[in-house]
Amino acid sequence: MSVSEREKHTMIGDRLRDLREAKHLSQGDIEKRAGLRRCYVSRVENGHTVPAIKTLEKWAQALEVALYQFFYDGDKPQQVPTVLRTSKQKHIDDWASRGKGLRMFTKIRRALSRMSARDRSVLLHTARIMSHKSRGA
């Protein structure tokens, strides 16, 4: 495994550990809540392996956090520029224009801006696959 791959593995592991510890949970608690073996939780947190998206979804449920929080790092979300709308668009309820949707969209934008082009490509490819599967195709 190359140094850069090892760093990527360690980054996700560190983030998962930080979130778990912030919730005052042990690796055993994650084992019980997510159905993941404690030794696997340890391997992920120590950068020896990277979990699949399905596993990250279980982990997010166990930690009671949104999945995007595994990839978001920052104190303040960036300001989202106001989008100009035509008169026909004013009646559309845009999920990313206010409230929780706006906050989530801002966090996603910030996380994507920090990623390398290659990592962004991998993430978007994974999202396409997940979207395709969720439509029952």
Write the SSE topology.
Elements: H1 3-22, H2 27-34, H3 38-45, H4 53-63, H5 99-114, H6 117-134
Helix pairs in contact: 2-3, 2-4
Instruction: Please state the structural category.
Output: mainly alpha
User: How many discrete structural domains?
Assistant: 2
Number of strands: 0
Mean pLDDT: 77
Ranges where pLDDT stays below 50 over 5 or more residues in a row are 87-92
Kindly estimate the percentage of residues that lie in beta strands according to DSSP: under 5%
Distance between the termini: 35 Å
What is the string of SSEs from the N terminus onward? HHHHHH
Shape category? globular
Q: Treating each run of at least 4 consecutive H or I residues as one helix, how many helices?
A: 6
Biggest pleated sheet: none
Oligomer status: single chain
Radius of gyration: 17 Å
Helix content: 55-70%
